[in-house]
Design brief:
The protein is an alpha+beta fold. The protein has one domain: Holliday junction resolvase RusA (60s Ribosomal Protein L30, Chain: A). The protein has 2 helices and 5 strands. The protein has a 5-stranded mixed β-sheet, with helices on one face.
Length: 124
C-alpha cells in the first residue's frame, strides 16, 4: 500500500504536507542569507502546523535547487537554520537528527525542500 499523502498546507513562500511518516516542507525562492530562512519557516510552523513533535531518531534531507549559478551560501549554515526552525514542531531537539543529507543541485526553479522522517533501524 503506498504511503498516504495529505494536501499541501500554506499559500505563501512556505508550504508543507505529510506523506506517510515523512513531512515535506518547500520554500520558494533563494537568498544568500541562510539566517533569512529560520524566522520564515519558524513562523509557518508556529501558525500553520498542527501535529506534535515526536521522540526518536530522525533522518532529515535538505535540497537546495537553483537555476543558473548556485548562490554563494554555506550549506552547513542553511542546514543549521532550518533545523532550528523545525525543532519543537517535527521533533523535540535537533540532537534527534541521526542522519542529515544536505544537497545543492540545479533545478527547474529556485526552492528549498526539507524532508524529515523517523529513522528506520535495519532489522538484524
Amino acid at each position: 500500500m503506498p504511503p498516504v499523502t495529505q494536501g499541501w498546507i500554506g499559500i505563501g513562500k512556505v508550504r508543507a504536507r505529510e506523506a506517510g511518516d515523512a513531512v515535506e516542507i518547500t520554500i520558494d525562492g533563494l537568498t544568500t542569507q541562510a539566517k533569512y530562512y529560520k524566522p520564515l519557516v519558524y513562523e509557518f510552523m508556529r501558525k500553520e502546523w498542527q501535529s506534535r513533535p515526536s521522540y526518536g531518531d530522525y533522518t532529515v534531507e535538505i535540497l537546495m535547487e537553483h537555476v543558473g549559478d548556485p548562490p554563494w551560501m554555506d550549506l552547513d549554515n542553511l542546514a543549521k537554520a532550518l533545523l532550528d526552525a523545525i525543532k519543537g514542531y517535527l521533533f523535540h531537539d535537533d540532537a534527534q537528527v541521526a542522519r542529515l543529507l544536505v544537497e545543492r543541485r540545479e533545478g527547474e526553479r529556485e526552492r528549498i525542500t526539507i524532508r524529515a522522517f523517523p529513522r528506520q533501524v535495519p532489522q538484524s
